[in-house]
TrEMBL record:
Gene3D superfamilies: Lipopolysaccharide (LPS) transport protein A like domain. Pfam families: LptD_N. This is Organic solvent tolerance-like N-terminal domain-containing protein. InterPro entries: OstA-like_N. Residues 23-169 form the Organic solvent tolerance-like N-terminal domain.
Length: 206
């Protein structure tokens, strides 16, 4: 579980700019199945790529053949207390799915992250909780669905759907998704959006 201590620590982390490959370490080894184009790592798994770090109990990596490579990494699934961190945010969930792509220079970049069940996202300004989260690094936007709660030093918001622009520092809470008709999996909140504004003397993030 993310604590106030973890929230404080992300402010102290230096920004890493070095271009480095994807590094995977585990305590219990890695099993690769060539016919399935996948590898599975078990036991205290740690993944490091650029400024991103991922820790989990089990990691599955998926590969595919492309015009440039026979084994290009394109997806990572982390389960069991999965925590992904960067200098300015922490994403925690029971299951994290990270989609990878290569840029014009053939270097790996994080395309998007999906978080499932007991999702917690911590930034320098707020803590968000939900059952589902979708993070887009290029836009620096997080979409949260089902039992959403966003807490910052000003107060707390509750709803069924939220869009958080991390770059602009804007959080939008809605009673349901704008595309509710197409997204049948999103449950409509039984009540209206709820906002709690704290007095200045009580403004602490929990």
């Amino acid at each position: 579980m993310i604590s106030n201590f973890a929230y404080a620590k992300i402010k102290e982390q230096p920004i890493e700019k070095a271009e480095v490959p994807i590094e995977i370490n585990s305590d219990n080894g890695i099993i690769c199945e060539r016919d399935k184009n996948m590898c599975t790592a078990y036991g205290n798994v740690e993944v490091i790529h650029k400024a991103y770090k991922l820790k989990c109990d089990k990691l599955v990596t998926y590969f595919r053949s492309t015009a440039h490579s026979k084994n290009e990494l394109y997806k990572i699934e982390a389960s069991g207390h999965a925590i992904m961190s960067s200098p300015d945010k922490i994403i925690e969930a029971e299951l994290l799915k990270a989609h990878i792509k290569k840029d014009a220079t053939r270097k790996y970049n994080l395309d998007e992250i999906e978080a499932f069940n007991n999702v917690i996202i911590v930034t320098q300004k707020e803590i968000a909780k939900a059952k589902y989260g979708h993070y887009q690094p290029e836009k620096d936007v997080v979409i949260l669905k089902e039992d959403v709660q966003i807490t910052n030093e000003e107060g707390q918001m509750h709803g069924a759907y939220a869009e958080v622009d991390l770059d602009k520092g804007i959080s939008k809470m809605l009673r349901k998704s704008p595309i509710q008709e197409q997204d049948k999996k999103v449950k409509t909140a039984p009540n209206r959006v709820k906002v709690l504004i704290l007095p200045k003397t009580q403004r602490t993030i929990r």
